[in-house]
Design brief:
By secondary structure, the protein is α/β, with parallel strands linked by helices. The protein contains 13 helices and 8 strands.
Length: about 400
């Protein structure tokens, strides 16, 4: 029993240390590769026509600003498809107002859906209305950098095997501690993970639904987005893999986003993400022996992450029993120091690579110890909640509710 306890403790603390080393190494090599092999942007005559899909449900607070950012793109050939998924506020009226307001400078189409059936269905309806052979899906709170579309299209057109390419989200609402911690997470974890995955495996676990470009041929080959899942972005990534397409990550395509500023909203968001990972495992179990080795590694990492959450929960319960009933608590300080040190290095790399684009300030570094606890605890709680939710209701379908975006 003692050997099992020691082994589980080593796994609970050692797993974050191990993956931090992997992320840091992969990110550094990825940055070196981009530096030595820069990719030029497309010239005006090379730009293909792009349809930008903007699905929305109750987005009167954010939609106007999103359209204004699209009007400022350094790109010539594009249309905007605004899709209202049965909002019960003034979102649909705002869409028509924006269409009239920008009619001389922007091509804007409005698609109105009579029933709220979720983001995936809204995107599918937008796909029907779109004319472009290339499509970009963004959220209604996404503000694209002027060169974001050009960056995405240059990457997508640079490799005919790419069915999709996703960009880099950067948090823009930082009015409280939770928003600032998520800022650190996006630049110090999510960005590093995607860069490391893309470099080491040639694949990424998922595109970011807030900014992703597709070939129409790739979308039609998988039947569009799947309305029967909770996370359409994770699901379509793996359906593209099953059809032989590759999916890329381009950190130079910047998208400014809003994130939850209340803990309840954050946990609900991360529970949905974790459930999406479970759905991928269930629907892609054959990938463990059929898919390329890079994709097998990503599936295995998802399994280990869920196992880590379960083992961590058991360890916390065990430590609580020792503390309250036996008045004894043993922690390996050396391992914790290593974890904090690696996390500091990891965030330092993310800070340096994102300082200009994310507009980071030096004092943000002081939040690193809090950020380490925040990231792993939120990951733990959301993963356990997702496992419970999937066991209770494995067939749950997605519909939209107004999110907590800290507006």
């Amino acid at each position: 029993m003692i050997w099992f306890t020691n082994l589980s403790t080593a796994f609970v603390v050692g797993y974050p240390i191990f993956v931090s080393i992997i992320w840091i190494s992969g990110c550094l090599f990825s940055a070196m590769l981009r530096r030595h092999h820069p990719r030029p942007l497309l010239a005006a005559h090379q730009e293909p026509f792009v349809s930008i899909l903007v699905p929305a449900h109750n987005e009167t607070a954010t939609l106007r600003e999103a359209v204004q950012s699209l009007a400022g793109l350094d790109y010539q050939q594009y249309e905007i498809i605004l899709i209202d998924d049965c909002s019960d506020d003034q979102t649909l009226r705002l869409m028509y107002d924006l269409q009239a307001e920008w009619k001389t400078t922007l091509s804007i189409k409005v698609v109105s859906l009579p029933v709220n059936q979720g983001k995936a269905n809204a995107l599918n309806q937008g796909l029907v209305a779109a004319q472009g052979d290339y499509l970009i899906a963004i959220d209604a709170d996404s503000l694209l950098a002027p060169d974001a579309v050009n960056q995405l299209m240059a990457t997508l057109m640079g490799n005919p095997q790419y069915g999709a390419v996703t960009g880099k989200p950067v948090v823009r609402n930082r009015s409280n501690l939770l928003g600032r911690l998520q800022l650190l997470e996006y630049v110090g974890v999510i960005d590093l993970i995607k860069q490391a995955q893309a470099y080491l495996t040639g694949n990424i676990t998922t595109v970011s639904g807030v900014i992703v470009a597709f070939r129409r041929t790739a979308l039609t080959s998988v039947g569009g987005w799947n309305p029967a899942v909770m996370t359409e972005d994770i699901d379509i990534t793996w359906r593209l893999y099953r059809q032989g397409w590759r999916v890329a990550y381009d950190p130079r395509a910047i998208c400014w986003i809003l994130v939850p500023e209340r803990l309840r909203g954050l946990i609900k968001q991360r529970q949905r993400w974790s459930r999406g990972g479970l759905e991928v495992l269930v629907t892609n179990w054959r990938g463990f022996y059929q898919n390329p080795w890079g994709q097998r590694f990503l599936l295995l990492e998802t399994v280990i992450s869920n196992l880590w959450a379960l083992m961590t929960a058991i360890s916390i319960l065990t430590y609580a029993i020792k503390l309250f009933f036996l008045h004894g608590l043993a922690l390996d300080g050396n391992l914790l120091i290593v974890l904090l040190t690696l996390s500091g290095i990891q965030f330092g790399i993310g800070f340096c690579s994102s300082q200009a684009t994310a507009r980071l300030a030096g004092p943000e570094l002081l939040l690193v110890p809090v950020y380490v606890l925040y990231y792993w605890m939120v990951n733990l709680v959301s993963c356990l909640a997702a496992i419970g939710s999937y066991v209770i209701d494995p067939q749950r379908r997605g519909t939209w509710r107004s999110p907590d975006r800290g507006v």
